[in-house]
Write a structure and sequence with these properties.
- With 501 residues, this protein is mainly alpha-helical.
- It has 2 domains: 2-359, no CATH class; 362-499, no CATH class.
- Helices cover 61% and strands 6% of the residues.
- The protein is built from 27 helices and 4 strands.
- It has helices spanning 2-28, 35-46, 52-55, 61-71, 76-104, 113-118, 121-126, 133-148, 152-162, 168-181, 190-197, 202-215, 220-224, 232-236, 248-251, 257-270, 274-290, 301-304, 309-324, 332-359, 367-379, 392-398, 412-420, 434-439, 443-447, 467-470, 473-481; strands at residues 386-389, 426-431, 452-461, 491-499.
- The longest helix is centred in the first third of the chain and has 29 residues, at 76-104.
- It starts with a helix and ends with a strand.
Amino acid sequence: MATAKAEVGAAFWWCLACGVVGVAVLLADPGAYFQDPALHFLRARWMWSHPWMLVDVWDRPAFTLLYSIPAALPSSGTAYIVAKLCTVVVTITAAWLTWQFARTERLGRAALVIPLMWLQPCVFLLCAEVTPEPLFAMLFALALVLRQRGRLTQSAIAVSLLILVRPEGIALAVLWAWCTVRDPRAGRTMLTRVAAACALALAPVVWWYLSAQITQDPLFIVHNWPPLSTSLGAVLTGGGVENAVRPWGQIVGVALAVPFVVGTVTSVWQRRLGMPVASVLTVLAAHLLAGGTGVFGWAPVPSAFVCVAPAIALITLAGWNALAAAPIGLSGGTRRVVGWCVAVCVLLVSIIGDVVVLDAQAPARDWRPIAQMTSWWSAHPRPIRRLIWSEAYADVLFGHDPTESALTYGDRPQVVALLTSARAGTLVVWDADIGPSWYGVTGAQIEALGFITLQHAAYTLGGPLPASVRSMPPVVRLRHLMALDTTSAPRSQEVWLLYRP
């Protein structure tokens, strides 16, 4: 009993510590490290006004529905912070469920799986962002626990929800279907096993039904799916192959790569953690096979592995235990001291690597000038009949319907036409990065279309790490290993507030 209480206590304190880290990440970056988090938030906030956003492929139906609750708070800026806190809670829940699996699996040091999940660089990066990957990880961990306990139908239902969170859910559903029909716990006959596997279609069928009812298009999901940039045949013949392995340092972390590899080998050798290992390999194979086609979208590749972060943590824990049990010719006391020293060093290097990854997200610094522009506007208000923006975080702070800014990526003529026809009272919040690179228009060019510049400022934006630290050799080497930008220059940015009188 005492041991069980100690295990629960250790898991609780690890979750609390990781939650504190998540809040610290939120405070360090209350904005969005790239466009997607702010866009996801805006779609969740305005989904009830535009029901098609609930069934949109990119908006992720299950994610949008859940986050529409915190996003509905009256103040858009406050709602965004609460939504980010919701992600911290979701990530903690995923870690707790992963610990439950490790404990039932009788893995040694089960509570250690919590920091081993949280310290994966991309988990650390997304633990306080409004993105679907942490929710996917939570549902995936739930599916693992349910399957471990023999509740195969409920596990299949949880996996069916994954398809409504990210496309990787389709690949995992195929894996689950194969394992379910081969598992005698699903039923004595093949018919009952197939019936259990059919639960994997539950959430997709509901998605299809709602999309058909809302849009009056029975094939809305097919029509709404992003077009492929490269055919599967071209990828298979060597064209546009996605290198899903190159950013390994961002996926498992430099310091945890060795225990992960050892854990993979020992798990396969000992025939343990079969479903976690198979899940990681399935996501890896899916991205190697089809990632280059664009079927998974164009989010950074490492973020996809946040989806299976619980499995990566379990495998890493197995490797950690195997390394700790390896004979090294030391006495008991000395062995414990060495073990503690190695553990502290690994965790310390992991934390440093996570901060380096956070620091490398240069666009994450743009929230500061946008917030300053919003504060200036609050002190000098004018009537706003329409808001157009280049960075979605501006709309988070101003709180307008995102459909007002109906700009098309890569279609400069459409963007220019929309700006030219904008009526009086249109406010444009524009930046010098996303504006030209996504939409082909600069702030000066917008001014030439009949807008007046109310505010224009240039900024030099540093990250969490001072330039002196960022350029130190060990940090630079970490950035190289993690396939990050190794430049130490601060981000240069310009922001305009333009108004049509």
